[in-house]
Amino acid sequence: MRAASTAFVEDPVNVPALLDGNRREFDKLVRQESPRLFRVILRIVRDEDEAESVMQEAYLQTYKRLSTFRGDSKFTTWLYAIAINLAKASLRKRKRYSIYEQEEIERLQPRFSGGDYVETYDRWDPHRLAELEQRKRLVHDAIARLPPDHRTIIILRDIEELSTAETAAILNITEGTARVRLHRARQALRTILDGHFH
User: What is the rounded average pLDDT of the residues 70-90?
Assistant: First the structure.
């Protein structure tokens, strides 16, 4: 039984039935979660065929590993964690896109001198940038260039609008780490996009 203090709402599926191997409940899970899960995977791998393949593998792995589910998060959180790990593994195999390496993210962070911010800072509003279709495409292309960890946290928090707690659970990191990673990812994304919008 999950602790009453959990930050998550109850699962939309019957977890005990799933864990007992109930195929109808698993089919219900697939029907309910596939649209959103496919969207998340597609934004990571940027290829529809590959996203379909990763999603199918995620469901297969989830079904095979039912006995390993510990119940310390939502079942759907566990499913998304499996899917995202598979999507990242797919990216590592393919390396098809021009993705910033981790050390390059350092160069995209804000610079300070004597405690003062070196560049003029305008608050970045992702909703304003995405108003026009061309701008939306630029934003998504820029997200695709981020390293997988940074791209994934932007997708989960800013696009799918999951909470910090649920995002951290999916990525198997602390909420503090999730906040730091999200801040760094947003800053890197803002720097990439600055050339297009100034």
Answer: 90
Which residues make Cβ contacts (< 8 Å) with residue 179, sequence separation at least 6?
Answer: 164
Residue 169 and residue 79: Cα distance in Å, rounded?
11
Under a CB-based contact definition with an 8 Å cutoff, are residues 57 and 38 in contact? no
Q: Whose CA is closest to 153, among 186, 128, 120, 198?
A: 186
In the DSSP assignment, the letter for residue 117 is: E
Q: Are residues 74 and 114 in the same domain?
A: no
Instruction: Give the residue numbers spanning the domain of 165.
Output: 102-197
pLDDT tens figures, 120-174: 545 555 555 445 567 777 888 888 888 888 999 999 998 888 999 999 999 999 9
Does one domain contain both 85 and 107?
no
Distance CA(96)–CA(193), nearest Å, equals: 21
- Token match 């992702």: residue? 126
pTM for this predicted structure: 0.66
Dihedral sign computed on CA atoms, order 173, 177, 179, 180: negative
